[in-house]
């Protein structure tokens, strides 16, 4: 039986409470504000379905209606995985318009993107792609196809809270980010998290599967399914635990392991980093610079890449300089590193690596992508 939101996550005999993301808060606030402006009465609770399919019933705070505009807030609750945004109010202001467009923007306390490299345009509000989609879909569901609305997401405490996040390092200034791929915050210790990921490997192997795709997160799974045309059944999330999940796949007897992800994660493996959380190790730019140098890149390109804060920003310089073959080189290097890790393994599996961009194009692979995909479809 699948878990509901109210089911706890258990670790060492302790029940840990789930939470919900700033993206879920913004979506719920926008939905209830749209409902209030249409119905012209105050609403105190709202329900949304998160991208992961979990239904949330959330209390509404500070509801207000003024003509064709309404404001509502949802209080962020990180469950037992408390972060810098826990307990703060995320507001939405919805104003009905005469056209049929939904225009979404960030207000006070929501950060602004000032650098390329995080998948959002410079100058945009730091509202990530999935929350943008869920906010717009929730408002559209309420107002119907012929009305329009201006939707403003704001967070009065956002600027102060953002000082406790990594936003400044990513070039997001003035506030928090509205994030969340699944909409749910699941608290887990590292060991229990790793074990839950390994369990999925065990279940698939028990069902007879002997080829598996390991991805850092949900973006990788969508890319495999939508761009490579390979069944999502072959995909298992490895999160940051690259080495652990490869070793588990070897233990279970998989004969092909394919790592698929954005260079922002996979490039670390080319440096022999098998736990990719930034708190453990972060040598992305150093690795890019080293391998660009091996490929004969000019000194000015090496300096530009070295000064970048994000892999995506570095990739723009790399592509503009005509060094996009770096990604194939890195994919081959990743497979070499894995082979070194498994050098004492009898009959090691075929290991492959595929890198893709934020716009879902294949950047490079250790061997022809058609061969890898063909084998995965066997």
UniProtKB/TrEMBL annotation:
GO MF annotations in UniProt: cobalt-precorrin-5B C1-methyltransferase activity
Record-level GO BP terms: anaerobic cobalamin biosynthetic process; methylation
Keyword Transferase: yes
Pathway: Cofactor biosynthesis; adenosylcobalamin biosynthesis; cob(II)yrinate a,c-diamide from sirohydrochlorin (anaerobic route): step 6/10
Gene3D superfamilies: CbiD-like
EC number: 2.1.1.195
The organism's place on the tree of life at top rank: Bacteria
Keywords: Cobalamin biosynthesis, Methyltransferase, S-adenosyl-L-methionine, Transferase
Family statement drawn from the similarity comment of this UniProt entry: Belongs to the CbiD family.
The name this protein goes by in its record: Cobalt-precorrin-5B C(1)-methyltransferase
